[in-house]
Structure formats: structure tokens, C-alpha cells
Amino acid sequence: MTVRVGRLTSGMTPEDHRLAASTAMAPAGALATTGGCLPGGLDLAPVPGSALQATLSAGRLWVQGTNGAAQGGYSVTIDAPVSLTFGAGHATYSRIDSVVVRVADPSHDSTVTVFGGEVLVVQGSPAGTPTAPTVPPNSQKLYDVVVGKESVGLDWVTGVLDRRRYTAALGGIVPPGSGVAFSGSHNGQYRDNDGVLERWNGTAWEPILRLGTSGQLQLGDVRVYRDGGTAAATNAIVRAYRPANEDAISVRSAVGDTASRLLVKGDGAIQWGAGGSTPTDVQLSRTAPGALRVNGDLVVRTHKAHYGESGTAYFNFAGVRAHAMTITFGTPFPTAPRVYTNINSGHAAAEMWSSRAHTVTATGFQLYVYNPSGTWSWSNMPVYWSAFAA
Q1: Burial of 30 (C-beta count, 10 Å sphere; 0-12/13-18/19+)
Q2: DSSP state of 301
Q3: Are 207 and 229 in contact (CB under 8 A)?
Q4: Global pTM?
């Protein structure tokens, strides 16, 4: 049949019914649906006192037919717990058994003769590096169970592997579960990958929420968007409503750091530090209207006009008429400043001596003292200097 219409006449085939039901499920192709469990149920648990037995709890799932897309899918309900038994371990090697739900449909599977559904333990082959067995047609895997060599019991901590894959209705978000490697079926499909919302772009799953053009998150007339590389931008003001003594904005170097490199407090104070686990160590804060205070050193990398710096140079020499000392500014000037000097002493050794600055550059100058009438000796004689930006 080319066109199948669901629930049209009483003469509908089983395939018609299954295909009609599948139109509400998440697709896996033009006619196929995404097989898997419905959230809740189908939990595997040990049987107390029985080492190789387990119980599968009630639950529901969708089994997609594997013998052709026109076969459709099967809605399966397990309405009571099912007891399962695993064979004893091999003498030399371990193996992997699979717990599956199988739909027996002789119309599409020549290996069965009776219509129905069942929960099976498909036994794997013992091997040095065992692999899971191939599941039967028209089935959905739930668990892989490792049966160790010479094992008379199952390791429920590391040997029971949850392989439940989940499905959703058309347009729904596929719940998290095993088998996250499956591809999406259509552009724009979403899934929950262990808490990360991912979107299928036609080629790969993207952990990107696309609620607007170009990846924008749109909140009314506010936009938050990727601004190239690893940069995020917004066309609006970002506000943080925080008490004065609490943190408002924190910038850290790496995930796991306990301290910030940059921290803005609720009262507007800005703190800086080395980051990592080292607390901030310098703060700039408003202390009064029009007044800022820093609790550490403030180094300005250039001087504005008529501002500058000063210092004291101490001279030590013996029996000379002149002596020079190189002075280096703590902060370079944009251009060579104006420098003024003074011998700050009334000692007799300073009589007839003069001081001046020469060879002035943006980074320093030569402080020169001299006596035109004779030689003298100085010991720790202070000479003041001041430099001002032009």
C-alpha cells in the first residue's frame, strides 16, 4: 500500500495501526521512529539470596521494527516485575549478557511463530575481551551484564551496565540515558545529555540554545549573543542587585579557583588579586562624595601636566670639586620633564657648592654638584630634586 491512513476503516492492517501511532513519536527517518524507553520503570535489581537472578520492574518502551521501515514500531508495556536468570560463568573467560525486550512478530521475523513480547537474557560468548551479543530482531536493549569467569554471582557495582535509551514524543526533548552517541533525526531536534540541552543541526549535536537568530538568547528587547571567539555580548545594561557587603561580579582564572582576580562588591568597591586560591589584596573604593581611596600602592604609568615626582639623592665623595649621580624616575614621563634641584644642608661643606640637572630624558637625568673654588669631601649630603611634566 502506498498511502496508509490511520483509523479510517475497520480493515486496517497491523502495520497501518503501528504507523499511525508512530506519527506522534520522535522520528528516526522518513518512516521509522526513535526506539527507546519512557522515563520511569524498567529498573534491574538483584534478588536477595539468589546470586544469578534479577528482577526487571514494570515500565513502558517503544520498539522500532528492524525488518523494514513500513513495519512500524511497537508500543510495549510490562505491567508487572519480570524474573530473570543468568547462566553460570565460564571456567576461563568472562562474558557479557544483554537484557532485551523483544517483540515476536512472525509477519516480519521468520525465527518466531507466535505473536507476543518477552524479556530475554541474550547470552554472550566467553572471551579474553568479551563483547556484548547481537540483539534479536525487533528488540530494544536495556542492560549489559558482565558475568565473570567461574562466577556464581553478579557484580552489581561495576558489572551491571545500564543501556536504557530513552525516546520522546514528536517535538519533545529526548530524556538523558545510555546511548548518547545516537544521531538526531531532523534539524532542530533537542535532547537532554546529562543536563546539557543539545540541538541537532543536521550533522552533529550542539550544546547551544538557539532561541533567536545567530545563537541569540532573546528576552523581550534584550539580546545576549556570541560576539566572536569565546566572547559574549549584550545590547543592554547588565545589572547585579546585591547587598553592599556581598560580591556582585567575580572574574576568575580557571574553573576550581577559590579566589577572584577581579571582584566588584555590592557597594561598588573594586578588588584585585592574583587569583587561584590567593585572596584579593588591593581595593579601590569611594569613601566620600568625589573621593576615591586605594588601600595599596597606586602606580600611574604617565604623568599629567604639572604633575610629577621628587626624591632625595645622598652624595658621598672625598677631595673633589664636582660629582655626578644618575637618577632614574620611578615612572617614565611622556617627554623629558622640567627638573629642579637643591642642596638641602647648611653645613660648611656645602658652602660655595651648587647643584643642577642635565641630560634630562623621559626616564631620568644626571644630578650634578660642583664647587668652582676648591675641593671638598661630602658624607651623606642630601640633594633634593623635583621633576614636573611640561
Answers
A1: exposed
A2: S
A3: no
A4: 0.54
What is the DSSP-derived secondary structure letter of residue 134? P
State the number of CA atoms in the 13 A half-sphere of 206 facing the CB.
12
**What DSSP string runs through 187-234?**
TT-EEEETTEEEEE-SSSEE----SSGGG-EEETTEEEEE-STT-EEE
Q: What is the DSSP letter of 150?
A: T
Give the cell for residue 364: 631620568
Predicted confidence at residue 230, as pLDDT, reads 82
CA dihedral in degrees (349, 350, 353, 358; nearest 10)? Answer: 120
Radius of gyration of the chain, Cα coordinates, nearest whole angstrom: 41
**Count of beta carbons in the 10 Å neighbourhood of residue 232:** 12
Which residue matches cell numbers 514524543?
Answer: 169
| Residue 322, number of CB atoms within 10 A of its CB | 13
Residue found by looking up cell 525486550 in the block: 101
Burial class of residue 153, CB neighbours in 10 A (0-12, 13-18, 19+): middle
pLDDT in tens, 117-128: 999 999 999 999
